[in-house]
Amino acid sequence: MEFWLTAALLTFAATLIVLLPLTRNRQGFLPAEKNDLEVYRDQLQEVEADAARGMIDVASAEQARLEIARRILGAEKAGTKTTSGTDKARSGRFLAFAAVLAVPLIAWGVYPLFGAPDMPSMPLAARLADSPERNSVDQLIARAEAHLAQNPDDARGWDVLAPIYLRLNRGADAANAYRSAIRLEGENLARVLGLGEALVEISGGTVTAEAETLFKKAAQLGPDDVRPQFYLAQSEIQDGRSDAAALRLQAFLDKAPADAPWRAQVEQTIASLSGGAAAPQGPTPEDVEAAAALGAEDRQAMIEGMVQRLDARLRENSADVDGWKRLVRSYMILNRRDAALDGLKRGLEALEGEERADLQGFAAGLGLKAGSATQ
Where does the chain cross the membrane (predicted)? Predict the structure, then answer.
Protein backbone atom coordinates (compact mmCIF):
# COMPACT_ATOMS: atom_id res chain seq x y z
CA MET A 1 0.00 0.00 0.00
CA GLU A 2 2.85 2.35 0.82
CA PHE A 3 4.38 1.71 -2.62
CA TRP A 4 1.16 2.58 -4.47
CA LEU A 5 0.61 5.75 -2.45
CA THR A 6 4.15 6.96 -3.10
CA ALA A 7 3.88 6.12 -6.80
CA ALA A 8 0.56 7.99 -7.08
CA LEU A 9 1.92 11.13 -5.43
CA LEU A 10 5.04 11.15 -7.63
CA THR A 11 2.97 10.61 -10.77
CA PHE A 12 0.57 13.44 -9.86
CA ALA A 13 3.45 15.83 -9.13
CA ALA A 14 5.25 15.04 -12.41
CA THR A 15 2.03 15.41 -14.44
CA LEU A 16 1.18 18.71 -12.78
CA ILE A 17 4.63 20.14 -13.49
CA VAL A 18 4.24 19.36 -17.20
CA LEU A 19 0.61 20.54 -17.51
CA LEU A 20 0.89 23.93 -15.82
CA PRO A 21 2.80 25.63 -18.65
CA LEU A 22 0.21 24.35 -21.15
CA THR A 23 -2.65 26.10 -19.32
CA ARG A 24 -1.13 29.58 -19.48
CA ASN A 25 -2.53 32.16 -21.98
CA ARG A 26 0.28 33.31 -24.21
CA GLN A 27 -1.75 36.23 -25.75
CA GLY A 28 -0.59 38.81 -23.24
CA PHE A 29 -0.55 41.62 -25.91
CA LEU A 30 -2.09 42.46 -29.31
CA PRO A 31 -0.53 40.97 -32.41
CA ALA A 32 1.64 43.24 -34.56
CA GLU A 33 -0.99 43.23 -37.37
CA LYS A 34 -3.68 44.80 -35.14
CA ASN A 35 -1.26 47.51 -34.04
CA ASP A 36 -0.50 48.27 -37.70
CA LEU A 37 -4.22 48.71 -38.51
CA GLU A 38 -4.58 51.30 -35.76
CA VAL A 39 -1.57 53.21 -37.11
CA TYR A 40 -2.90 53.15 -40.69
CA ARG A 41 -6.31 54.44 -39.60
CA ASP A 42 -4.63 57.33 -37.75
CA GLN A 43 -2.60 58.12 -40.87
CA LEU A 44 -5.77 58.15 -43.01
CA GLN A 45 -7.41 60.64 -40.63
CA GLU A 46 -4.34 62.89 -40.77
CA VAL A 47 -4.44 62.87 -44.61
CA GLU A 48 -8.13 63.89 -44.53
CA ALA A 49 -7.37 66.71 -42.10
CA ASP A 50 -4.42 67.99 -44.17
CA ALA A 51 -6.57 67.95 -47.36
CA ALA A 52 -9.37 69.87 -45.60
CA ARG A 53 -6.94 72.56 -44.46
CA GLY A 54 -5.45 72.79 -47.95
CA MET A 55 -2.01 71.70 -46.87
CA ILE A 56 -1.83 69.12 -49.71
CA ASP A 57 -3.45 69.15 -53.11
CA VAL A 58 -6.28 66.83 -54.16
CA ALA A 59 -4.08 64.51 -56.28
CA SER A 60 -1.54 63.99 -53.49
CA ALA A 61 -4.30 63.36 -50.97
CA GLU A 62 -5.88 60.75 -53.22
CA GLN A 63 -2.55 58.99 -53.79
CA ALA A 64 -1.90 58.91 -50.01
CA ARG A 65 -5.37 57.47 -49.39
CA LEU A 66 -4.76 54.69 -51.93
CA GLU A 67 -1.38 53.79 -50.39
CA ILE A 68 -2.84 53.70 -46.86
CA ALA A 69 -5.78 51.61 -48.05
CA ARG A 70 -3.38 49.12 -49.63
CA ARG A 71 -1.51 48.78 -46.36
CA ILE A 72 -4.74 48.29 -44.41
CA LEU A 73 -5.76 45.43 -46.71
CA GLY A 74 -2.36 43.76 -46.23
CA ALA A 75 -2.60 44.05 -42.46
CA GLU A 76 -6.12 42.57 -42.44
CA LYS A 77 -4.92 39.55 -44.49
CA ALA A 78 -1.99 39.02 -42.09
CA GLY A 79 -4.40 39.19 -39.16
CA THR A 80 -6.48 36.43 -40.72
CA LYS A 81 -3.41 34.19 -40.94
CA THR A 82 -2.46 34.95 -37.36
CA THR A 83 -5.91 33.92 -36.19
CA SER A 84 -5.53 30.64 -38.05
CA GLY A 85 -2.10 30.09 -36.48
CA THR A 86 -3.53 30.83 -33.05
CA ASP A 87 -6.24 28.23 -33.59
CA LYS A 88 -3.56 25.71 -34.60
CA ALA A 89 -1.48 26.54 -31.53
CA ARG A 90 -4.52 26.00 -29.32
CA SER A 91 -5.12 22.67 -31.02
CA GLY A 92 -1.46 21.70 -30.47
CA ARG A 93 -1.70 22.57 -26.78
CA PHE A 94 -4.79 20.47 -26.47
CA LEU A 95 -3.02 17.47 -28.03
CA ALA A 96 0.00 17.93 -25.72
CA PHE A 97 -2.36 18.18 -22.75
CA ALA A 98 -4.06 14.91 -23.75
CA ALA A 99 -0.70 13.17 -24.33
CA VAL A 100 0.61 14.16 -20.90
CA LEU A 101 -2.51 12.80 -19.24
CA ALA A 102 -2.34 9.60 -21.30
CA VAL A 103 1.20 8.69 -20.15
CA PRO A 104 0.40 8.06 -16.46
CA LEU A 105 -2.94 6.46 -17.32
CA ILE A 106 -1.28 3.97 -19.70
CA ALA A 107 1.60 3.32 -17.28
CA TRP A 108 -0.73 2.63 -14.38
CA GLY A 109 -2.78 0.33 -16.56
CA VAL A 110 0.17 -1.71 -17.88
CA TYR A 111 2.44 -1.94 -14.81
CA PRO A 112 0.21 -4.32 -12.80
CA LEU A 113 0.39 -6.78 -15.72
CA PHE A 114 4.23 -6.96 -15.81
CA GLY A 115 5.57 -5.35 -12.63
CA ALA A 116 6.08 -6.85 -9.19
CA PRO A 117 5.69 -4.09 -6.60
CA ASP A 118 5.34 -6.56 -3.73
CA MET A 119 8.69 -8.30 -4.40
CA PRO A 120 10.96 -7.85 -1.32
CA SER A 121 14.32 -6.13 -1.67
CA MET A 122 17.47 -8.27 -1.90
CA PRO A 123 20.48 -7.03 0.13
CA LEU A 124 24.09 -7.57 -0.92
CA ALA A 125 24.59 -10.70 1.18
CA ALA A 126 21.56 -12.34 -0.41
CA ARG A 127 22.73 -11.40 -3.91
CA LEU A 128 26.14 -12.95 -3.27
CA ALA A 129 24.52 -16.14 -2.07
CA ASP A 130 22.03 -16.22 -4.93
CA SER A 131 24.53 -15.86 -7.80
CA PRO A 132 28.02 -17.03 -6.75
CA GLU A 133 29.14 -17.40 -10.37
CA ARG A 134 29.11 -13.60 -10.66
CA ASN A 135 31.37 -13.08 -7.64
CA SER A 136 35.12 -12.62 -7.62
CA VAL A 137 37.40 -15.01 -5.70
CA ASP A 138 37.67 -12.57 -2.79
CA GLN A 139 33.87 -12.25 -2.62
CA LEU A 140 33.45 -16.04 -2.65
CA ILE A 141 35.99 -16.41 0.15
CA ALA A 142 34.28 -13.66 2.16
CA ARG A 143 30.92 -15.36 1.65
CA ALA A 144 32.33 -18.73 2.76
CA GLU A 145 34.05 -17.20 5.78
CA ALA A 146 30.86 -15.42 6.81
CA HIS A 147 28.94 -18.68 6.51
CA LEU A 148 31.49 -20.61 8.58
CA ALA A 149 31.59 -17.88 11.22
CA GLN A 150 27.89 -18.56 11.80
CA ASN A 151 28.13 -22.34 11.17
CA PRO A 152 31.54 -23.46 12.49
CA ASP A 153 30.43 -27.11 12.52
CA ASP A 154 29.88 -27.25 8.75
CA ALA A 155 32.59 -29.71 7.70
CA ARG A 156 31.57 -29.41 4.05
CA GLY A 157 32.21 -25.68 4.20
CA TRP A 158 35.72 -26.23 5.60
CA ASP A 159 36.37 -28.81 2.87
CA VAL A 160 35.46 -26.25 0.22
CA LEU A 161 37.44 -23.36 1.72
CA ALA A 162 40.65 -25.21 2.65
CA PRO A 163 41.93 -25.99 -0.88
CA ILE A 164 41.10 -22.42 -1.96
CA TYR A 165 43.34 -21.11 0.83
CA LEU A 166 46.04 -23.54 -0.26
CA ARG A 167 45.93 -22.41 -3.90
CA LEU A 168 46.24 -18.81 -2.73
CA ASN A 169 49.38 -19.72 -0.70
CA ARG A 170 47.59 -19.01 2.58
CA GLY A 171 49.12 -22.00 4.32
CA ALA A 172 48.15 -21.13 7.91
CA ASP A 173 44.50 -20.55 6.97
CA ALA A 174 44.45 -23.76 4.92
CA ALA A 175 45.90 -25.75 7.83
CA ASN A 176 43.25 -24.38 10.22
CA ALA A 177 40.50 -25.22 7.73
CA TYR A 178 41.74 -28.79 7.21
CA ARG A 179 42.11 -29.31 10.97
CA SER A 180 38.53 -28.11 11.50
CA ALA A 181 37.20 -30.54 8.88
CA ILE A 182 39.18 -33.42 10.43
CA ARG A 183 37.92 -32.50 13.91
CA LEU A 184 34.32 -32.56 12.73
CA GLU A 185 34.21 -35.59 10.43
CA GLY A 186 37.53 -37.40 10.79
CA GLU A 187 40.38 -38.11 8.38
CA ASN A 188 40.21 -38.92 4.69
CA LEU A 189 42.72 -38.72 1.86
CA ALA A 190 41.88 -35.17 0.77
CA ARG A 191 41.99 -33.73 4.30
CA VAL A 192 45.14 -35.50 5.47
CA LEU A 193 47.05 -34.81 2.27
CA GLY A 194 45.83 -31.19 2.18
CA LEU A 195 46.90 -30.60 5.78
CA GLY A 196 50.35 -31.98 5.01
CA GLU A 197 50.66 -29.71 1.97
CA ALA A 198 49.59 -26.73 4.07
CA LEU A 199 52.32 -27.49 6.62
CA VAL A 200 54.88 -27.69 3.80
CA GLU A 201 53.66 -24.31 2.57
CA ILE A 202 54.04 -22.84 6.05
CA SER A 203 57.58 -24.20 6.41
CA GLY A 204 58.67 -22.72 3.11
CA GLY A 205 58.91 -26.02 1.24
CA THR A 206 60.45 -28.19 3.96
CA VAL A 207 58.66 -31.44 4.86
CA THR A 208 58.45 -31.23 8.65
CA ALA A 209 58.07 -34.23 10.95
CA GLU A 210 54.33 -33.63 11.35
CA ALA A 211 53.90 -33.26 7.60
CA GLU A 212 55.81 -36.52 7.01
CA THR A 213 53.48 -38.35 9.41
CA LEU A 214 50.48 -36.98 7.54
CA PHE A 215 51.89 -38.03 4.16
CA LYS A 216 52.43 -41.56 5.47
CA LYS A 217 48.75 -41.65 6.50
CA ALA A 218 47.78 -40.28 3.11
CA ALA A 219 49.80 -43.01 1.41
CA GLN A 220 47.80 -45.60 3.36
CA LEU A 221 44.47 -43.93 2.61
CA GLY A 222 45.30 -43.55 -1.08
CA PRO A 223 47.79 -46.27 -2.07
CA ASP A 224 47.38 -45.42 -5.76
CA ASP A 225 47.87 -41.66 -5.33
CA VAL A 226 51.31 -40.44 -6.35
CA ARG A 227 51.24 -37.20 -4.37
CA PRO A 228 52.01 -38.65 -0.93
CA GLN A 229 54.88 -40.63 -2.46
CA PHE A 230 56.43 -37.50 -3.90
CA TYR A 231 56.29 -35.70 -0.57
CA LEU A 232 57.73 -38.69 1.27
CA ALA A 233 60.54 -38.88 -1.29
CA GLN A 234 61.20 -35.18 -0.75
CA SER A 235 61.44 -35.83 2.98
CA GLU A 236 64.01 -38.57 2.38
CA ILE A 237 66.01 -36.26 0.13
CA GLN A 238 66.02 -33.66 2.90
CA ASP A 239 67.46 -36.28 5.25
CA GLY A 240 70.23 -37.02 2.76
CA ARG A 241 68.74 -40.37 1.64
CA SER A 242 68.40 -39.82 -2.08
CA ASP A 243 68.83 -43.54 -2.74
CA ALA A 244 65.83 -44.33 -0.49
CA ALA A 245 63.77 -41.70 -2.30
CA ALA A 246 64.66 -43.25 -5.66
CA LEU A 247 63.75 -46.75 -4.43
CA ARG A 248 60.41 -45.50 -3.07
CA LEU A 249 59.44 -43.85 -6.34
CA GLN A 250 60.62 -46.83 -8.40
CA ALA A 251 58.60 -49.26 -6.30
CA PHE A 252 55.51 -47.11 -6.74
CA LEU A 253 56.16 -46.79 -10.47
CA ASP A 254 56.47 -50.57 -10.92
CA LYS A 255 52.88 -51.12 -9.83
CA ALA A 256 51.42 -48.03 -11.52
CA PRO A 257 49.35 -48.18 -14.73
CA ALA A 258 51.32 -47.85 -17.95
CA ASP A 259 49.20 -44.89 -19.08
CA ALA A 260 49.44 -42.95 -15.82
CA PRO A 261 49.73 -39.23 -16.68
CA TRP A 262 52.45 -38.66 -14.10
CA ARG A 263 54.66 -41.60 -15.16
CA ALA A 264 57.10 -39.46 -17.16
CA GLN A 265 57.58 -37.06 -14.27
CA VAL A 266 58.30 -39.87 -11.82
CA GLU A 267 60.78 -41.47 -14.23
CA GLN A 268 62.58 -38.16 -14.65
CA THR A 269 62.82 -37.71 -10.87
CA ILE A 270 64.19 -41.21 -10.40
CA ALA A 271 66.80 -40.62 -13.10
CA SER A 272 67.97 -37.39 -11.46
CA LEU A 273 68.22 -39.09 -8.06
CA SER A 274 70.05 -42.14 -9.38
CA GLY A 275 72.63 -40.00 -11.14
CA GLY A 276 73.51 -37.99 -8.01
CA ALA A 277 76.59 -38.41 -5.86
CA ALA A 278 76.67 -40.09 -2.49
CA ALA A 279 74.18 -38.67 -0.06
CA PRO A 280 75.52 -36.43 2.68
CA GLN A 281 75.68 -37.90 6.14
CA GLY A 282 73.76 -36.52 9.08
CA PRO A 283 74.89 -36.03 12.69
CA THR A 284 76.88 -38.82 14.31
CA PRO A 285 75.25 -41.11 16.92
CA GLU A 286 77.28 -39.35 19.58
CA ASP A 287 75.83 -36.00 18.50
CA VAL A 288 72.29 -37.36 18.63
CA GLU A 289 72.80 -38.88 22.07
CA ALA A 290 74.32 -35.68 23.42
CA ALA A 291 71.52 -33.56 21.99
CA ALA A 292 68.82 -35.84 23.42
CA ALA A 293 70.17 -35.36 26.94
CA LEU A 294 69.82 -31.57 26.76
CA GLY A 295 66.86 -29.28 27.31
CA ALA A 296 65.06 -27.59 24.45
CA GLU A 297 67.03 -24.34 24.60
CA ASP A 298 70.39 -26.07 25.12
CA ARG A 299 69.63 -28.52 22.34
CA GLN A 300 68.80 -25.65 19.98
CA ALA A 301 72.03 -23.89 20.95
CA MET A 302 74.00 -27.08 20.33
CA ILE A 303 72.48 -27.49 16.86
CA GLU A 304 73.18 -23.84 16.04
CA GLY A 305 76.79 -24.31 17.12
CA MET A 306 77.22 -27.40 14.94
CA VAL A 307 75.81 -25.53 11.93
CA GLN A 308 78.07 -22.55 12.56
CA ARG A 309 81.13 -24.75 12.80
CA LEU A 310 80.18 -26.45 9.53
CA ASP A 311 79.68 -23.06 7.89
CA ALA A 312 83.09 -21.87 9.12
CA ARG A 313 84.80 -25.06 7.87
CA LEU A 314 83.24 -24.66 4.41
CA ARG A 315 84.58 -21.12 4.18
CA GLU A 316 88.06 -22.61 4.46
CA ASN A 317 87.43 -25.77 2.41
CA SER A 318 84.79 -24.87 -0.14
CA ALA A 319 85.28 -27.91 -2.39
CA ASP A 320 83.20 -30.23 -0.12
CA VAL A 321 79.89 -30.75 -1.96
CA ASP A 322 78.53 -32.99 0.80
CA GLY A 323 79.31 -30.31 3.35
CA TRP A 324 77.38 -27.73 1.36
CA LYS A 325 74.41 -30.11 1.21
CA ARG A 326 74.46 -30.61 4.97
CA LEU A 327 74.71 -26.86 5.53
CA VAL A 328 71.77 -26.03 3.28
CA ARG A 329 69.63 -28.81 4.73
CA SER A 330 70.49 -27.78 8.31
CA TYR A 331 69.46 -24.19 7.72
CA MET A 332 66.16 -25.37 6.20
CA ILE A 333 65.49 -27.58 9.23
CA LEU A 334 66.17 -24.57 11.46
CA ASN A 335 63.63 -22.65 9.35
CA ARG A 336 66.30 -20.15 8.27
CA ARG A 337 65.53 -19.96 4.58
CA ASP A 338 67.58 -16.84 3.92
CA ALA A 339 70.66 -18.47 5.42
CA ALA A 340 70.01 -21.60 3.33
CA LEU A 341 69.83 -19.47 0.17
CA ASP A 342 73.07 -17.72 1.12
CA GLY A 343 74.80 -21.07 1.72
CA LEU A 344 73.49 -22.37 -1.60
CA LYS A 345 74.79 -19.29 -3.40
CA ARG A 346 78.25 -19.65 -1.88
CA GLY A 347 78.31 -23.37 -2.62
CA LEU A 348 77.37 -22.87 -6.28
CA GLU A 349 80.09 -20.22 -6.61
CA ALA A 350 82.70 -22.56 -5.07
CA LEU A 351 81.81 -25.75 -6.99
CA GLU A 352 82.07 -26.56 -10.66
CA GLY A 353 80.78 -29.11 -13.15
CA GLU A 354 78.92 -32.15 -11.83
CA GLU A 355 79.34 -31.19 -8.18
CA ARG A 356 77.72 -27.81 -8.85
CA ALA A 357 74.81 -29.51 -10.65
CA ASP A 358 74.54 -32.03 -7.81
CA LEU A 359 74.18 -29.27 -5.20
CA GLN A 360 71.70 -27.44 -7.39
CA GLY A 361 69.52 -30.56 -7.75
CA PHE A 362 69.72 -31.24 -4.03
CA ALA A 363 68.57 -27.70 -3.23
CA ALA A 364 65.69 -28.01 -5.68
CA GLY A 365 64.48 -31.04 -3.73
CA LEU A 366 64.35 -28.82 -0.64
CA GLY A 367 62.26 -26.23 -2.41
CA LEU A 368 65.15 -23.82 -3.06
CA LYS A 369 65.59 -22.41 -6.53
CA ALA A 370 69.19 -21.97 -7.59
CA GLY A 371 68.29 -18.97 -9.74
CA SER A 372 67.20 -16.96 -6.72
CA ALA A 373 70.47 -17.77 -5.00
CA THR A 374 72.78 -16.81 -7.84
CA GLN A 375 71.10 -13.58 -8.93
Answer: 94-114
